[in-house]
Amino acid sequence: MGMTDPISDLLTRVRNALAMSKDTVHIPASNMKLRIVYLLKEEGFIKNFKFVNDDKQGMICVYLKYDESSRKPAITQLQRISRPGRRTYVKSGNLPRVRNGLGVAIISTSQGVMTDVQAGQTGIGGEHVCSIW
Prior knowledge:
The chain is of the alpha+beta class and 133 residues long. Helices cover 25% and strands 30% of the residues. The protein has helices at residues 6-19, 31-42, 116-122; strands at residues 24-28, 46-52, 59-64, 78-80, 89-90, 104-109, 112-115, 126-132. The strands form two sheets. Strands 4, 5, 6, 7 and 8 form a five-stranded antiparallel beta sheet that branches. It has a three-stranded antiparallel beta sheet with strand order 1-3-2, covered by helices on one side. A hairpin with a 6-residue loop joins strand 2 (46-52) and strand 3 (59-64).
């Protein structure tokens, strides 16, 4: 049986790896997941990531980011907003601000997956996939 919510699986794998202070986490790949992980890297929540081709679906190897001295993770919380059973859409004028700008909202728009700031600059809304801070 297939997975019903692959985005929640991505967030849960990252959340669990951070709780166990792992340096890397492997996630089954998809275009949406690759874009979300890319945005996490651009926003400074993870060190890096790489796509590993395994002649099937592929895997994303995510290198997690921690504070050098205290080993506290860069990501405090990952929250899934729009779910398969209840989709949440936002208009361009009502884009969410996560933790007064300290966090990032991931928005899936007609022009691709982007952050709340990028969607605001573009002037488009879309599905509020998740929030990260």
